[in-house]
Request: fold
Amino acid sequence: METIRIDKYLWAVRLFKTRSEAADACKNNRVKMNGVEVKASRDVKVGDVITLRKLPVIYTYKVLALIENRQPAKNVPLYISPRRKNWRNWRSGTSAFLCSATPAPAVLPKKTAATSTASSRRWGRRNNKKRGLLPLFLLVMLFFNHQFL
Reply:
């Protein structure tokens, strides 16, 4: 395998959740390869530099190897290498701010069973006996308003 479509490659290395999202990004000129905006059918080769715009950040990657099938997240560094992540003007190329290519890991609070149950009860997703009364009330009101008009 010497080449592969860019939309399929972007999906396979997990830069997009679906292949159609990758194709839409190419269609809307959010993907550049070697400095040129590309269509979804453009072929990718080893060594190409892909620039991806996800507002307000522009990501730059180098293609290390080609694959056709979607890979687990732990295998992605074998196929693509992040070059840099920056905030810049897409058209002119002037850079406003540069930072490292790997973001700092986010520390999320642990969600226990007690907090998830409490929050779901608070929002009425669980054990809510009154959940069916409002739609029934609205149907009755619509019926009577229609009958008297």
Observations:
- Residues 96-106 have pLDDT under 50 and may be disordered.
